[in-house]
Design brief:
It is a single chain. Strands 3-2-1-4-5-7-6 form a seven-stranded mixed β-sheet, with helices on both faces. It is 31% helix and 27% strand.
Length: 206
Amino acid sequence: MGAHAVTETPISQNKTLNVDYFDALYRQHPDPWNFETSAYEANKYAASLAALGGRRYARGLEIGCSIGVLTRSLATAVDRLFAIDISAIPLETAAGRNRDLTNITFEVGALPHALPVGPFDLIVLSEVLYYLSPADLDTAAAAVLRALSPGGDVLMVHWLGETGYPLTGDEAANRFIARVGLRLTIVRQERTAQYRLDLLRAAVRA
C-alpha cells in the first residue's frame, strides 16, 4: 500500500483502518496511490530492492501488496513469495499484472491477525504499519516475530510526510523497532526527504 491516496480524507481517530476503508478507496480508483506512474514509488521500490543487498530468500511475505507493482520486483529475490492485502479488490489486478510469474501466491490477509502460515525468510512492510492503532501495531510486531525464520529479514519502508492515519511513519517504525527489542537487529537504515527505510534481521539460532 502507499502513503497517501489521491481521493482519501484524513483519518483522525486512533483506530486501525479496516477493510471497508480500503475497499472504498479501490472502488473510487483502481490505483489510488498511483503505484504505476509515481516517480516516488519507483524510486522507493528500487531502493527497497537495493537494501536487500542481493540476498536470495526461500520464502517471502509482502504485507499490503495492493495492485502488485512492488510484488513483481520482490519476486526476483524470492523463490516463493506470498503477497497479501486486506482488500480483495486490488488482488485481481495484482494477479493479472504478475500472471507470467509462477512463484507468487496472492491471498486476502492483513496484520495483525490474518497472516499466511510461516516461517518466512523475508517479510516486507512497505507503507502499512501506520494504518494500525498503537495496540494493533504491538500485536503485529509479535505476529511478525512468530512468522520470521531464524536469520530472516524484515524490510520496513514508510512515508515521512503527513498521513492523517493513526500513526506517522516515524511513530510506526520506531514503535515496531521498540517492540521487537533485541529479537531483531538493525542492519540498515536510510532516510530521504520523503521516506525512511529500516532493514532488521533475526539472529541465527545456534
